[in-house]
């Protein structure tokens, strides 16, 4: 300042200009990426062509395992599918079916939840979640899901039958709650006896407990509740309704329910009701139900059903697909039929029908 005098400021180097928009940004930590999850749609990149081929192969293998009722291996295949692509709703519903078959109801519910996150109108996911809730004995949630299923598709017979059953479980639960309250009230009345007053002979607590509804006394620890109550069977009006009922029966392998269905079904209607949907497991279920549940009660009805079953579409194909052991079951049924005297058919009629079954 002493050297340059009053003009010292003019000799300084110019200060570089800073754009007014270039504000200094505050430091923020980078959000941590959560670990990959099957249900997280952003957890992994899009699958490559090779991955898609592997996905398709695994899915087909899983589907075949389900057809073979090998649910553990099917579950493994579907889980491998989800490692490649976790966005396909069908894989979750398929795996949920496996979990249901293995009585792993919580896992089945979770898979249905994921499927409904992808497609909130998926009927299979909603129906199978209803079954999972039922297995977990959460009957109100099961009821809610079944009502939603019927809102989406009112023609699903299985859902109607399950709804009736869940309502019965809810009624039993309500009745049991009321009974327990009444039992407690009665126990208190017995206990509160005034001094000098003789206690009236009454039933013990153990005797009181026998009033509990029969359904509540059943052991439900060995499987899902659907196996503890009879499946309600109504007469189907067409092939679609028959198929829905027979599918529900097949899921439970319920030969007694199948026998009830055959009892209310006209034998002459069987080919029309089966249409072109006769499968190996259905064919065998019909044979076993006739053999185990109806031959002793109504041999004439058994003969008529066997006669009209032989006229069903795909009958000849079924004969080529059944195993030696299954053929032996059919032959045993015909032997029982031959040994049962009946005025509605002769021994020659049975032998002629037996030849149609290639026995």
UniProtKB/TrEMBL annotation:
InterPro entries: CiliaryAsmbly_MitoImport, RPAP3-like_C, TPR-like_helical_dom_sf, TPR_rpt. GO terms for cellular component: cytosol. Residues 34-46 have a biased composition (Polar residues). Pfam families: RPAP3_C (PF13877), TPR_1 (PF00515), TPR_8 (PF13181). Keywords: Cytoplasm, Phosphoprotein, Repeat, TPR repeat. Residues 29-48, 191-226 are annotated as: Disordered. Residues 235-327 form the RNA-polymerase II-associated protein 3-like C-terminal domain. Transmembrane segments: none annotated. It is found in: Cytoplasm. It comes from the Eukaryota. This is RNA-polymerase II-associated protein 3-like C-terminal domain-containing protein. It comes from Gulo gulo.
